[in-house]
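pinning this so it doesn't scroll away 📌
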Amino acid sequence: MTTLAAAVAEAKACFAAGGLPDAAIESRILIGGLLGLTSTQVFTGGDRVLTDEESALIKKAIARRLKREPVHRILGEREFHGIKLKLSKETLEPRPDTEILVDTLLPHVRQIVASKAEVRILDLGTGTGAIVLAILNECPQAKGWGADISEDALLTAQINAASLNLSDRFEAIRSDWFQAIEGRFDIIVSNPPYIKGDVIPTLEPEVRDFDPLAALDGGLDGLDAYRVIAAGAGNALASGGVVGVEIGFDQKDSVTALFAAAGFALLEAVRDYGDNDRVLVFTRQQSGN
């Protein structure tokens, strides 16, 4: 018989031996997620005897993690900004730094609601729907559209919207950036691919081998998606609206220049938890500037 505590200890030892840096934390998250237990229940329920099926499930998951598959990929879901999101093969795993983009835009969302009673949000490259669904979850007056080229991603976003009871305010659109987008939006938001193509082979296996390449590869200079967004945002942005994007740590000046050339002014720049530039918010340049 194997207890919960013994299983956690075994997972921790395997991960440490495999060179994984957060062995203790990951062992608890993985086993808790597999068994549907909270972190507190994992801590306090160490004497629980596991069934043979549970033990086998855990062993298989440990083997997958040792092959560098991320914990949340194994579990098939991840929490983001207080909501739980399903992951799929063609969706980027949402990360804490992207929560900064949500938090940065929420005051703008609420300001627009105060003046217009509603707010229309377009999330380009929506993936799991993380950004737009997190905003809809915080703002009942918001309506959101998630655009993506991937049918797999769009289906995942729709599943996530349904699980959060947000389907009535969310629509998934298959679109290559703005190609199939109609109408105007108060908020245009994106966490686009921004890694230089030649850097991708050097990334950690958890990212390089398990996040979809289309969500990572920003072209030779990492700026391909920003060029498209900057060029198309003017035709899709409502009066008084803003564009918010996540960026790489060294891209503030280059992305700002792209948007400036397209008629936008930098309204706000926000750093992440590592004190790197992470979020930029743009508004239309005022005439005469």
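📌 and the second one:
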Amino acid sequence: MGRRLLGIWFPRLASEASQRRRPVEGPFALVHRVGNADQLHCLNADAQGQGLHRGMALANARAICPDLCTRPADPVAEAAALASLRRWAMRYSPLVARDGDDGLLADITGAAHLFGGEAELLADLHDGLSRAGLSAVAGIAGTRAAAHALARHGGGIVPDGQLMQGVMHLPVQALRIDAVTAAALGRAGLTHVADLAALPRAPLARRFGADLMVRLDQLLGHQPEPVAAEPEAPHFGVRLTLPEPIGLTVDVMAGLERLLDRLCDHLSHHQYGARRLRLELSRVDRETLTVEIGLARAMRDAGRMAALFARGLDDIDAGFGIEAMRLTAPVTEALAPAQIVMGQAGQGADAMADLLSRLGNRLGFDAVLRFLPMDSLIPERSFQLAAAAYSCAARGFGGTGPARPLRLFPPRPVAPTSDPRPGTPPAGFSWQGQVLTTLRAAGPERIAPEWWLDDPDWRTGLRDYWRIQTHQGPRLWLFHTPQDPGWQVAGEFA
């Protein structure tokens, strides 16, 4: 038996997947931004019936079809839909690979008889997809390139041993060549595969490039092209069915600890760590309770993760009892094995991660922030705020360079009590309703604006900063701009 490959093309995958989530009546299209204009990305059958096509500018499409309903394209959701279809297509073959962003390829060698033949297999495939509301075109041939070409140009079956005769009618665009080469072939009168097969190869390669011959050989089976099915991502989930219903918190914690031990072993085997854990408790009355926690960093330490569940389990209502428990790690990260050393090394990082996990589960992980340094001499741009759980602490933050105030705030003008001498700070000034006198002054520190950024606050030009110690106690950071006379306070030292 020769090799048999199944090609499946979903011409409206993105739009139909979006409509499955939120149905829309009438013409519908997904749009994405290309340069400075919105273009149609994927359309439904009603929109195509109005004369619209993929790549058309949205403004032109609305001029033709004013009733067009649009949504932004979601590449992540589109990829997830194709991944789900790939898993579903494994009912026909264990080797199923993606074919671009809107197609699949499956090696069905020796499997078609399980469905009664190749024609029956295609009928079963189309029936299943039509029930799901998805449009698809499929073809079966002896090479990957031929299956791909058939799926995108009408579908059908090329019988085993008749590959040459079965692909001659296909247009040259079916060879997966670029649009420039296809247009050049068309101008030369070569519009079908049969036109190329009848000509000497050397002149074709010289005029249109060697890639054309490679694609033709792949279509005809002269050059092998494997189907590389991607490996399945590991699923991190464990389940525990209880012989008798339980309801006490201590019993639930005991079951959770057993689940965590098994889950951490599974994570360790694949060198992953969990960033989010979900515990599902199935009650006797068919209700399901869910307790979910997040982790500040990837972890597979069962004891430390169990402690984070304690607060959530105190609030559950076990009803007439819990009969099953399921623990999953929906969000994971790669976590290589760590060297175990004697002493206290690494305990500080673990303690900080535990603290961030506790605060994040109570307040929200986006509410726990840390300062990170930025490569800028402008004081207010020298740092940024980032979620502590999704960033790493910086080493040596603020360890070098001139001293900076403990508090930075937008510049506030001060009123000198007397005219200062040029190049020196005022001897006295009023600020926040009090009159302050200068005891000591250090400076100036001249800071120039970053010319490549247009900041309205720095349009007046460079600034001369002074550290001022006052008789009354406040230690302030004053500056004045030579181009715009006047003194302002930008911060306060500890």
